[in-house]
Batch of 4 targets.
Target 1
Amino acid sequence: MNAENALRRRLLLAGAAGLAAVAALPDAARAQNSARTQGAEAIEPDIDTTAVWGARSPRGTISRLSYRPSRIIVHHTVSANTTNFSRAQAHAHAHWVQDLHMDDNGWVDTGYHFLVSRGGWITEGRHGSLQALAGGTGFVLGAHTSGQNNQAIGIANEGSYHAGATPPQAQWEVLVALCAYACARYGIAATRLYGHKDYGDTLCPGVFHAMLPRLRDEVGAALA
C-alpha cells in the first residue's frame, strides 16, 4: 500500500489524539481538515461528494425524509475486483454504478447512499446523502433494498464477493469508519448493521454477510 493511502487510513480511523499526532506529518493538511471529531463520537471520514467525482444530475426529484434511518444495509456492487486502489478508480466506479442504475435500471439516480472503493475511498452515491448525514436528522430515499429504502442507509462496496474473495484491508477499515460515523450521526446501534440478503432473495453482499458479526463488533468498538 502506498504512503498516501496508509496516511489516509490512519486519519480515517484515528481518535482525536491520533489526529493531533498525524497532523505533524508532511502533506497531512488536507486530510486533517477533512476528518473532524464529533465530540465523543466517531471520526468523520473523508467522503468525495457527487460534485467532486462529477456525477450526472438526477433524472427527477430526490425525496428527502424528515426522520432518521433505523439501520444500515451493506451491499457489494459486483464490479471487477480491481487492483487499482486509486482515488481516480473510486470515481470511475461511482460513474459506473450511476450509469448502471440510471440507464439500465431506469432509476432517478444512484441507488446507494455511499460507496466504498477497494482502495478505501468513499464516494457519495445518491445526491444529497452526505448533506443529510451531516445534519443527522433526516436522509434521502434510496433505491438499494426492496422494502427498506425508507428505513435504511445503503452502503455498497466495490467488487464482487460471491466466490470467496475477501475485501482489501483498506476497504474493510474504511467501511468500519463510515458505518461508525453514520451510526453516530443517526443514533443507530452497531447491532443494526445488516446485509442485503437479510431482506431479499439475493447473494448480495457475498462474503460481507458472513463478516457482519465482525463489522458490528468493530463499529461498536469505534463508538465506545
Note: The CA atoms of residues 162 and 207 lie 6 Å apart.
Target 2
Amino acid sequence: MSDPLPYVLILYYSRFGATRAMAERMAAGVEACRGIEARLRTVPPVSPTCEAVDPEIPAEGAVYASLDDLRHCAGLALGSPTRFGNMAAPLKHFVDTTSELWLGGTLVDKPATAFTSTSSLHGGQETTLISMLLPLLHHGMVYAGLPYSETALMATQGGGTPYGASHLAGQRSDRPLDEHERQLTFAQGKRLARLALALHHRAGAPA
C-alpha cells in the first residue's frame, strides 16, 4: 500500500461565506500541484453562554478541525474575517488549544500562510493577517506571503496584500471574489503547496 499524500491544512472560520470561498479557492491552488492534497477544516463559533452547544458536525461545509489535522499537516493556511483588525474569536480559540503541539515542536519548519476578508477596503486586512502570523512564528513555522511576482498585487482594486490574500466582501458581505482576488488566493495556495512539498521531502531525506 502506498503512503498517503501529504496535505496542506486550510483552517478557517467564516460567518457569511466569504472566507469559506477564499478557502475553497486556495484549496484549488494547492491541488493544482501534483503529489499533495488540500484538507479543508473549520472551527465552531464560540458563545458567551456556557449552555450553548454546537453540533459535533456542521450542517454544511468543512468539518471541524482536530489537533491531529494540524499535527500531521505538511503546511498550514489560516483564514479568518477581521474582528477589529484581529482574527475572529473562534479561530483564536482553536489556536489557543495548540500548546501541546508547541511544546513538542510539531510544526517547526513547516510552511504557513494566512488569508482574510473584510467588509471595507481599509477594514484591517493587513493587521488581521499579521495577527494570524504571530502564533505561527511561535510554533516555528516558515511564513510564506504573496510575492510581487504575482502581478495582480499591483493591479487589484479590491483585496490583495504581500502578507497574504485578502478579499473585499462589502458592507453586506455579498461581494464575490473578483478576478484579481481569485488569482491571488489561488496563487497563494499553489505557492504554499510547492513549499510544503519541498520541505516535506527534505524532512524525510537522510541527514
Note: Strands lie at 7-12, 37-42, 75-83, 86-87, 111-118, 142-143, 166-168.
Target 3
Amino acid sequence: METLPELLDAVADDRFLPPDGTVTVLPQLCQRDAGIMAFTAHTVVLTDEDPAWVRAALAAVDCDPLAAPMHPRFLTALMDRTGRAAETVDALWVGTPLPGPPALALREIADTGHPRVVRARLRRDSVRVWVTDGGLLVIGRGVGGRREVALEVEGGGAGLGRGLALAARQLADGPVWAQVSPGNARSVRAFLAAGYRPVGAELLLSARGGSTGCSGSCS
C-alpha cells in the first residue's frame, strides 16, 4: 500500500495498515486534497510539506503520540504552515456496491444551486445529483479518486436517509465513502442501517478561498 488509492482500496476491503503507532506521510495527489486520515493506531498525513517538518511538529505536541496527529496544536501548526483551513473531524465510513436498482424513485438532475451540491463541487470531481420527494443524493470523486456520497433529507418520511445511503451503494460500481460528523446522530444511524462500516476518522484541509481542483488527476 504505497499510494493513497492503494491504501483506500485496502481499507475498503478491510485490510488495514499495521496498528503500530506509525504516522505515514504521503504527498498530495493533487493540490486540492490535503489532510489527516486516522485509522486504528496508524495515521496518514496527506501533505506536500517536508515529512521531517511533519514529524518534528508531531513530536512537539505534549500528548499521547497516538493522539498527536489529530491534536489541535498539530492541526493549527499544519494549517499555519500550509495556509489552509479546516472544519471538523469526520467519522469515515465505507459501503460496498450492491446489485439491483434503488428502491427509491430517484431522478437525476443536471444542475442545481442546492448548498449541498455547491459544496460537493468544491471538493469533488464528476459530481452527479439525484432527487426524490424530500431527499437529495450526491455522488462524486473525492480524495484519492474515491467515490464519496452526501445526502440531505428535508421533511421526507421515516427511513429516507437510510434509503438514500443504500441507493448510493446501488448506483456505484465500487466502494462508496461517507464523511459524517460524529455528532450528527441521525446521519450516523442512517449510514449504519444502510450497511456502511466505520473505518476511521478524517480531517481535510481546504485551500482558503475555495478549491483549486484536481484537473482530473484524482479521477
Note: The chain has a mean pLDDT of 92.
Target 4
Amino acid sequence: MPKRFVVAASEFSELSRSDTGFELAEGLTAAAQQLHQTSSPNATLHTAVRLAVHILPGVEYAGISVIESEARRQTLAWTDEVVRSADELNAGREHHPYWNRLWTAPVARIEDSAAADGEGDLALSGLGLRSVLSLRLRADRRRLTVLTAYARAPRAFDESATRIGRLFTAHVGIALDSATLREQLTEAMRTRDLIGQATGILMERLDIDASESFASLVRTSQRENVKLRDLARRIVDASEGE
C-alpha cells in the first residue's frame, strides 16, 4: 500500500500562536471540508490543484502527476495548460536530479529555473515558469504521486510555503485515500449485485442451484480469461436484450 506522508503538527507550532496561524488553520479546515466532499478520487485531485493555487503562498499554477520508475509520467489534474506543457517537457526526464530527490525526500524546489549554476531547468524557464515546488502525495517503490506548484517569479516559494504545502498535501492524501476507499466499496457493491443477477439468470436457464451457477461463471471466466465482473455484465446485458 502506498505510504502517505503526514506532517506532525509540532513541526508548525510557531504558526499556532499568531493570527496568521489561525487564518491558516481556518483555510486548511475549509480546504479539508471541500476535499472530503468530492465524489471520486479524480474529483479530489482536481479540487486539490484548484485549492493549492488559493492556499499555498506564491502559487500561480498547480498540477498533480504520477511519475513511474520506468520513466513514464502522467498528468492527472491541472489548473492551466502550461502545467501539462511542463509535464510533457519533463516526460522521460524522471531521472533528472530534481525529480530524483522526490524518491528520497518529501519536497523538492527549483528556486530559479533560469539559473546557470546547474540548479535551473531551461525547459521550464522557456515556459515562463521560474519557481517550482513539488510535494509528494504518495510513494511506493515504482510510483510517485506528486503535487507540483509553479510561479512565474523566481524564488517564489520560501520555507513557509513549503511547510504550508506539506500540511496541505497531508489533507489531500487523507481525502484521496477516503475517496478511493468509497469508490472501491461502491464498485464492490455493484459487482456483487451484477454477479448475483448473472447467477440468477444461469440458474433459471440451466436449471441449476446457486452454487453450481456461480461455479459455472468462475469456470467460464477462467477459460475465456475474462474478469468475472465483465462476464456477468455480458450475461445480464444479453438477457435484457432478449
Note: Strands lie at 3-4, 61-68, 72-78, 107-110, 131-139, 143-151.
